Structure formats: structure tokens, C-alpha cells
Amino acid sequence: MVVFWEGATMDHRQFNGEGLVDTLKKIIGTRIKALRKHRSLTQEALAEAMACETATIGRYERGEFSPSVEQIAKMADVLGVSPAEIIPSSYEISRQELVDLREKLFTVALCIDNPAKLRVILDLAESSDK
């Protein structure tokens, strides 16, 4: 945790790239779930076809774990799609990263009780838009 001032912290993952990995896992998980439901498969049925545990499918869908390349290829085959339909494009990653960063900024701003400190953040945000 990086402390900017009392009540305003940022997770260290935003500075070392882990945020991008989390974003990828989240997008891949969302796609797996949507494709599975589109095929009217339960997590259990997909897990059986993948020869893995049902909990593993749930972890993928929640973005807790990321499937290997081999697992993505097998899953794509089971779901009747190309592996490219499971893996997000750079544009989608950027969009999701923006959503995640805005959510984090909002959360940090809610924790700040000092109007002057909020003004500093607002001024910085407004100046970066110009």
C-alpha cells in the first residue's frame, strides 16, 4: 500500500503491472462465463469436458485464476469458438483498465475528508485533461 496522505492510499499493484494481469483475468473470466451460458452449459458440464474441477471453472470466471494457453484452446473447442474469442484485444484491455482506474480513484476520493486535498486531486485531474 502506498500512502499519499492519511486516508488516501493506493495499492502497489498499480505501479508494477499486476493491475494489467488482474484486468486480463477479469475479462477472460467474463468471456468464459458468457460463452458457457450461451451454450447452455453448467460449470459442472464445462469442467467435465475440460477434465478439471468445477471450482476451477468458477475461479476462471471470477478472474481469480487464468487458464493456460492449452486450457484456453481446449475450452474454445468445447465452447465451439476460436481461442481468440476468449482472449481480449488490447482495446478491450485498455477500456477495462480505464473502468478499474476510475473505480479506484472514486474509492480513494471517498476516503478523503479534507476539501483541500480533494481540490488537489481535482485540479490534477482537470489539468491532465488539457
Task: Please write out the topology.
Layout (H helix, E strand, L loop, with lengths): L1 E4 L2 E3 L2 H4 L1 H21 L4 H8 L3 H8 L7 H11 L10 H22 L3 H14 L2
Antiparallel strand pairs: 1-2
Helix pairs in contact: 2-6, 3-4
Description:
- It comes from Pseudomonas savastanoi pv. nerii.
- This is PbsX-like transcriptional regulator.
- The protein is mainly alpha-helical.
- It has a single domain, classed as Orthogonal Bundle (434 Repressor (Amino-terminal Domain)).
- 68% of the residues lie in helices and 5% in strands.
- The protein has helices at residues 13-16, 18-38, 43-50, 54-61, 69-79, 90-111, 115-128, and strands spanning 2-5, 8-10.
- A two-stranded antiparallel ribbon has the order 1-2.
- Helix 2 (18-38) crosses helix 6 and helix 3 (43-50) packs across helix 4 (54-61).
- It is elongated and about 55 Å long.
- Residues 1-16 have low confidence and may be disordered.
Counting DSSP E segments of at least 2 residues, the number of strands comes to 2
The CATH architecture name reads Orthogonal Bundle
Radius of gyration: 19 Å
Fraction of residues in helix: 55-70%
Overall 3D shape: elongated
Order of helices and strands: EEHHHHHHH
The main sheet comes to:
2 strands, antiparallel
Q: If helices are DSSP runs of H or I spanning 4 or more residues, what is the number of helices?
A: 7
CATH superfamily: lambda repressor-like DNA-binding domains
Give the N-terminus to C-terminus distance in angstroms.
30 Å
Structural class: mainly alpha
| Strand order of the biggest β-sheet | 1-2
Query: How much of the polypeptide forms β-strand, as a percent range?
Result: 5-15%
Low-confidence runs: 1-16
GO molecular function, one term: DNA-binding transcription factor activity
Protein name: PbsX-like transcriptional regulator
Keywords: DNA-binding
Domain HTH cro/C1-type: 32-86
